[in-house]
């Protein structure tokens, strides 16, 4: 658990944990609930009204649909999604009513939280607080409001919400309604992640995770990935390599290419970073 008030001092000890939760982050719980509610109302719109956003291009500003990677999914998926790019350009929906205002405020507040976490990570690595933000052109960085809708499923054991994957962003925040379902792989076992009301779940390492479904009630989660600017190559930090006397273990890649890789068949059930690992000779 990251208490935001203690971020810089408490952080180093907590880095070993597999996934973090953030409290005291300053985003009103009522705003988080309003955002979940607005997304729920979008998913419940008649199919006709959602049709215009059912596109398949990775970086379309607004898109919705069923499934994770439509081209390559092999298992029975039980999920609808809505992805809206909120930064560097803010995009929004006219329906359902209220989505625009709520998502504007929510995107600003969550971006501020992600920015603080990124500075905390920079400092915990012994770098200037704004080192990573500068290197990643954070001021032009991508932020997506990615809502997931998992209706109750009569046979949850035969389906999955989202198959195992790693996220593509630098800092992904996640909130959910009162249903759990996010699981992370830990010591070869899937472990359910609980979240306290009003907290964010944070993923900033390439954590292997999945979303399960249940037969009781609809689950809604909103993942908010924050990444570098699309044209920015992500590389191992030269100063840290030098300090540790290490050579780079990963090749560099622009964020846009990395996102394309994450959505491609090569990344299906394979952690994305595996593709970037420098091969031992
Ligand atoms: O629904 C969840 O808890 C997980 C969502 C997720 O992993 C994603 O959107 O990338
Ligand atoms: Fe994810």
UniProtKB/TrEMBL annotation:
Domain (Fe2OG dioxygenase) ranges: 140-228
Listed GO MF terms: L-ascorbic acid binding; metal ion binding; oxidoreductase activity
Domain of life of the source: Eukaryota
InterPro entries: DIOX_N, IPNS-like_FE2OG_OXY, IPNS-like_sf, Oxoglu/Fe-dep_dioxygenase_dom, Plant_2OG-oxidoreductases
Keyword Oxidoreductase on entry: yes
One Pfam family named in its UniProt record: 2OG-FeII_Oxy
Keywords, ordered alphabetically: Iron, Metal-binding, Oxidoreductase, Vitamin C
Family: Belongs to the iron/ascorbate-dependent oxidoreductase family.
Protein's recorded name: Protein SRG1-like
Organism per entry: Pyrus ussuriensis x Pyrus communis
């Amino acid at each position: 658990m990251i208490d935001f008030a203690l971020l810089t001092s408490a952080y180093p000890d907590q880095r070993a944990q597999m996934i973090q939760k953030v409290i005291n982050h300053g985003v009103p719980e009522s705003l988080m609930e309003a955002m979940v509610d607005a997304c729920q109302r979008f998913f419940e719109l008649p199919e006709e009204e959602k049709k215009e956003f059912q596109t398949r291009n990775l970086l379309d500003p607004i898109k919705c649909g069923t499934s994770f990677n439509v081209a390559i999914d092999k298992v029975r998926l039980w999920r609808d999604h809505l992805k809206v790019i909120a930064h560097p350009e803010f995009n929004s929906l006219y329906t359902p009513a209220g989505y625009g205002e709520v998502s504007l405020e929510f995107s600003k507040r969550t971006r501020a939280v992600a920015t603080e976490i990124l500075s905390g990570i920079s400092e915990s690595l012994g770098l200037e607080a704004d080192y990573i933000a500068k290197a990643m052109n954070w001021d032009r960085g991508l932020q997506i409001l990615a809502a997931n809708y998992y209706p109750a499923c009569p046979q949850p054991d035969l389906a999955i919400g989202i198959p195992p994957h790693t996220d593509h962003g630098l800092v992904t925040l996640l909130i959910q309604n009162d249903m759990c379902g996010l699981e992370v792989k830990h010591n070869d076992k899937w472990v359910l992640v609980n979240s306290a009301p009003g907290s964010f779940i944070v993923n900033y390492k390439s954590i292997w995770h999945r979303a399960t479904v249940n037969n009781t009630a609809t689950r809604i989660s909103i993942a908010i990935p924050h990444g570098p600017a699309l044209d920015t190559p992500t590389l191992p930090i030269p100063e840290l390599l030098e300090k540790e006397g290490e050579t780079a273990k990963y090749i560099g890649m622009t964020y846009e290419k990395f996102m394309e890789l994450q959505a491609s068949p090569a990344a299906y059930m394979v952690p994305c970073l595996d593709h970037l690992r420098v091969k031992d000779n």
